[in-house]
Specification:
By secondary structure, the chain is α+β, with helices and mostly antiparallel strands. It has 14 helices and 21 strands.
Amino acid sequence: MSHTADYDCAIIGGGPAGATAATILAQQGRNVMVLEQSLFPRPHIGESLMPQTYWTFKRLGMLEKMEASNFPRKESVQFVSTSGKDSQPFYFTDRDDSPCSITWQVERDVFDRMMLDNAISQGVIVREGVRVKEVLFEGGKAVGVRVVTDAGSEDTFAKVVVDASGMSSILAKQLKLRRPDPKFKNAAIYAYYKGAYRDEGRNSGATIIIHMPKRDGWFWYIPLCNGVTSIGVVAPPSYLCTGRGNDPLVTLDEEIAKCPGILRRLEKAERITKGFVTTDFSYRADQMAGDGWVLIGDAFGFMDPVYSSGIMLALKSGELAADAIHQGLSDKDLSGNKLGCFAPELLHGMNMIRQLVEAFYNRDFSFGQFMKEFPHHRDHLVRILIGDVFNDEVAQMFDTMRQWITLPQPSDLKTGTETT
């Protein structure tokens, strides 16, 4: 049975990926509906941006809004060793002092609302507080979504369905496409603090990555507005979530007390929230697109958050997917091959970041020693930290790195798991 499409595109989820895809499609004259289960603003983890988001913000019409915000400016990333020694900051502006080298640390409830309001201002229709139960298919092609509201269920039909539902991965789970990443089975416990120590000047907005003393895991330190700092510890669940009772704050406090690199930054700080927990958060789907459907952002895959790549990849995937969908609609070709034509480019960038994640978790590898021996790769490392990963140049660093440690070849990373 064929149905008349209500929309050119129905997008499940109004987070950064969904809002990006919706906005760009609307800018191109497409009729777009976003279906969001939550009522914004909503709390969400993942506050740190990469500078390469600048170009997507510019295209979305978000750049002036970001520049006018009170989000702390992020100009650097810094690492802290197991002994608590700080590295020299990696300043993004040292390699390029243009505005695109500075980004932001964002409060996700505020940022996500800004992104969704920007989409609405450009013609996107948004429904909040509705749950997508399933994606509808006819003859193997996605044709719409079944939505549950307080009044019951209803069907909305669209020429293309985009899953931007984040970790819910509604369509990937429906089609049984989602696979865990066996290398990165970690958990995170986090909370928010006020009054944590911050450097002055250029490094005041830095994301700081702090090794635990025995390299059992690591802490993130992300400065936010009004003196608030996001602090989280990441480690395998077998270490972090076993034998410590039901209160995650007990575990968080214990790990802070053992880690000089984070402890000294919190000496005068006060925790202002409860503790939060998330587990087993690295995965990827087997496909990015099929006939009439596309997966973007965390709905396609989530990578270990050590380098804060999540929002950058969400925005990039939304942008690339929107262009592919627009072209497919123009050409009247909504096949998986057409809608997923951007997949090789996105996967290449994701795989560059994933190899750096592998090096970070290798106990036998030291970035400091590597940079001392191969200083010409410092630029490649900074480019990856910026998010400049959709090119072949930065891959040169990993060719050299394989002389020190075992890393998968890029060809082995198509789905995020090794074939060796």
